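Listing 4. Sequential folding, example run.
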Amino acid sequence: ASSSSSSHAGGRSGAAAGSPAHEFSVFWVPRRSIAVEKVLEDEGVYGSLAQGEFSLDLVALDDDVLSLELDRAFRECTLEGDTSSLFYAASALLKLQQMYGLIPRLQGMGPAAKAVMEMAVRMRREAPLPAAAAVACRIHRAVLLDREVDPATPMVTQITFEGLIDEVTGIKHGSAPYTPSRREAGASDAARGRPGSTLLNSSDPFYKEFRDLPYYITSQRLQQYARDARKEYAELGSKDLSELKSFVKGLPKLLLLDRLSDLAVPVAEVVKEQVMLL
């Protein structure tokens, strides 16, 4: 597959005597390209495959975040001369308008942004929006920024809670590496301490509260919440039945708080060692 396409194969091959025939399929994500079809032709299997496309474009990472997850787009456009990602961005912009109505104002800065706007306008002419979408207008303006205009910003150290998690452990596709602590309730001995990953989005009320705060404020609040939780746990023996029920209902939130505390540990170690230039 090309740098902008991937495939999933089922397939059809010549069956040996007495063995059942197999059918093979290739689905290109997000779309097929001439380059990958040429490879299949050179290998002599183009006519033996059933082909299709899966247009994976906008991925909802959070309530207010949509991403194409094209992490190589800047490199491909500036160094490799592959502008496929600009086509995908224009297609996604057209899809947004099909869903939420015509965007009357498209603005952009930089040559790539200008190219995306021109492609989006051309696509809209070639495939007019449905009548309802053409009239509706839920997005009044879209601003496109070409990273080439400002390459310095991604190099600046982030100091928010979410930013430092990204700096230290990395956030990819809306999730971060995560190793549960051995104190985590409900986990088997085998599961405790096993590395994995965890989603980070606004469905977690604590993460929603902390994500955009400076790290030192988040650290203070986490410590305060932990002290309050330990105090409430220590007073369980003096609580009546209704208070115990209320405590049990709040256990899922305590587990979420535990998870964030575990995510903060690697960040705290790096900050304390003063490895990062804040």
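-- end of first protein; second protein begins --
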Amino acid sequence: MYVKSLIEKYPDVEVRVFRGGENVGVNPKINNMIPAYKASKYSLLLVSDSGIKMKEDTLSDMVLAMKENVGLVHQMPYTCDGAGLPSTLEKVYFGTFHARIYLTSDLFGVNCATGMSALMRKELLDNAGGFQAFGCYLAEDFFFAKAILEQNYKLAISTQPAAQNSGNASVSSFQNRISRWIKLRSAMVPHTALLEPFSECMLSGALAALSSYILFRTDPICFYLVHILVWFISDWILIHIVQVKIRNVFFCP
């Protein structure tokens, strides 16, 4: 009904609604998008999950980031404001650990794109075999970006975060989601699973304290406590920046 009301509100905009899909692989998301992909006729494609809350100018912002040498523009995942422990867990995770890894990976040109909201050049996807070529992957977003990078195009992050607006948040669903992502990363890029613990506060702090003691004979306990304090302050600054950014974009209920 909501989509129908939008079509009636903007009669001059060409719109088609697709129901069902085609079985081209193990990825149900790709299967659902195949008919729309085949019917698409413009140079840019937006893949956006239904749980992402977007502002009126979000698409324009992503298009502006699509420079000549950019093949994919993605949004950094974050969450809308919500009440309760599950929403707090999601906000802290996506606003600190995930944001830190996401932005650092983008800074060094590492493939970190997520498929919950991504704008891509259709020509580059066609060159890689179209959507159907990615039906054999569960993590289609990683391989979308990989195929685009292999064609000597870059990835870019939109200035607006992807506001996940889940209506049924729970601790168990959050835990299952994180576990699923860990399994996917371990299967696709196993070296990251081995290196990831070293990016955590406690282990990296312990190793740094030990190294400082061996090299400079500093107090390891004092070094470790200062490290944790600085880490927490840095995380607070990061989540504050992301939170202020998303509230400036729109108010999430």
